[in-house]
Known about the structure:
The chain has 490 residues and is an alpha/beta fold. Helix content is 44%, strand content 19%. It folds into two domains: 3-261 and 475-489, Rossmann fold; 264-471, Glycogen Phosphorylase B (Rossmann fold, 3-Layer(aba) Sandwich), CATH 3.40.50.2000. The longest helix is centred in the C-terminal third of the chain and has 21 residues, at 339-359. Bound molecules: adenosine-5'-diphosphate-glucose. Adenosine-5'-diphosphate-glucose (ADQ) is lined by residues 51-53, 55-56, 186-187, 260, 295-297, 330-332, 374, 379, 396-401, 404.
Amino acid sequence: MVGTWTLGEVGSARDTARETARAITPRLELEGRLIAVSNRVARPSATTSPGGLAQALGDALHVRGGTWIGWSGNLVADAASAEFDLLAEGEIVYGLLDLPAEDFQGFYEGYANGVLWPVFHGRPDLSVHEAGDYAAYQAVNRAFADAIARVAGRDDTIWVHDYHFLPLGGLLRERGIPSCVGLFLHIPFPHTGVFRTIPEAEAIARAMMGYDTIGVQTTRDARNLAETLAAMGEGTLLRRGEGYEVFVFGEHVRIMPLPIGIDVAGLRDVVSAPPPAAVSSFCRTLGGRRSLIGIDRLDYSKGLPQKLQGFYRYLQTDPRRADKVVMTQIAPISRGTVPAYEKTRREVEAIAGGIAGEFTSLTHNPLNFLTRAVDRATVAHLMARADVGLVTPIADGMNLVAKEFVAVQDPADPGVLILSEFAGAAEAMTSALLVNPHDIEAVAAAIETALAMPREQRRERHFSLMEVIHDTDISRWTERCLTELATAAD
Ligand code: ADQ
């Protein structure tokens, strides 16, 4: 631990925090530091496996050094007792902020995951508007803005992540922060009409104009965001390279598609090591059967019912297939207390139960359905040994599983990726077998096509998918984002 301040402290405590953060991140001293902001941070000392965003940010900061500000994981009684700790681990300084318990619920489950997540994934029908949630979302964003103000210097670059912090750009401007501030939105941005279903849509759009630049996953997201911001305040938009510049509410912002990728070399290292014992024993039980894999959080956006229905239809078309394949679907329960997730879980379990009841024999079960969390090495080795990867979200910012599946395949004899056309990944990964996940027959047919695909065609498709994967490697993605931020700062 190198410093602790309560959020009520001002003046010299603020200067001390800034100096401390600067002193312990010497690598970027001359050019200004990078300050990343996200809901969760992934410290190297943590025992739990980080999610997509945390993994990507950890990799990015590991390469450059910098400060990473996020929630400490501590809930406190009220704002006055919330502490902001700075501590150094490896190349990264962590700024960890306590949050008041009463605000956290409304911020995280209430507004971020109960309103913004469904609307941004095209499901406004699933959004739940509870009184007080928006106020809690704002309160947490203000607390983050106050914490950032304590450490940010003029030359620093602030890189904010995701839908938890849409208003942070405006709040930092209100506090007179002179640094360049960028947002990267990891989830899709919807059409204007869908965005407008949010009661606070205009306030959010205005606050987002406080950012200098906003990165999104795809050209479709960039267009949706630019058109929406312009439309909300009758502003104008200009094409700028692959992105846009929007002028509205007396501000302007640049919007760029910056598709995220994976740490290709890191993942290849994981699969070059010997597999965990459970994977070896699973492979023995396959006994020559073909293996299909799905790796998702149990989230309604991930299209799990559609995927399992597609597999169900594949088996029903010719019941002899049940003895020739094994589908492994790992879907750990996520946000389990949000009602829409509970409903999806029941739906998925009912379909899995139907498949098991109809097709399990005394000697073989064609579906392994796990709602337990499985570690990264096991997941990677399972993907490497699968003949088919099924990634069928009904909406997804990018979907890193699609990229991970391709990256761990043996180039000489690769498996086939079946990919939803609604995943951000599909914009560039056109050599996958693209499907509309709502079309159950098409999913079943894609499984058949994938399992029958000749090796030469599999190799050609894999080669071209690997070009996309190398092009968006996490280190390149980081460089692109930081270059974009630096350009916006000029
Ligand atoms: P997520 O919705 O979490 O991320 P995704 O990109 O598919 O989704 O996965 C993130 C990471 O979690 C991957 O490394 C994956 O291997 C791992 N993971 C997912 N399910 C797992 C499971 N069942 N067991 C073990 N590991 C699992 C959000 C957006 C995405 C976007 C990312 C990054 O929703 O669209 O791609 O951020 O920007």
